[in-house]
Amino acid sequence: SLQAVDALREAGAHVLGMGAIFTYGFQQSIDAFAEKECPLFTLSDYDHLLGVAEARNTLH
Q1: According to the model, what pLDDT value does residue 20 have?
Q2: Using alpha carbons only, what angle is made at residue 21 by residues 52 and 11, rounded to the nearest 5 degrees?
Q3: List of the chain residues with pLDDT < 50
């Protein structure tokens, strides 16, 4: 979370970015990471999850 980024920076660390497995892509989160100048890298996101579910015909 951005709290971890803040804590690391306060301790003198140079944070290059944050990695996560998944994001819902909420605009509030995107804006918060941009404001902190902390790139967020994720393996997947909600749009891709929906796309795969649709392709596999698992949405009902």
Answers
A1: 96
A2: 160
A3: none
State which residues form the domain around 15: 2-55
pTM, to two decimals: 0.81
> What confidence score (pLDDT) does residue 3 get?
96
Cβ–Cβ under 8 Å, residues 37 and 13: no
Q: Residue 60: inside a domain, yes or no?
A: no
> Which residues lie below 8 Å from residue 35, measured CB to CB, with a gap of 6+?
none
d(CA 20, CA 43): 7
Q: Beta strands 18-23 and 40-45: pairing type? A: parallel
Cα–Cα distance for residue pair 47/60, rounded to 1 Å: 17
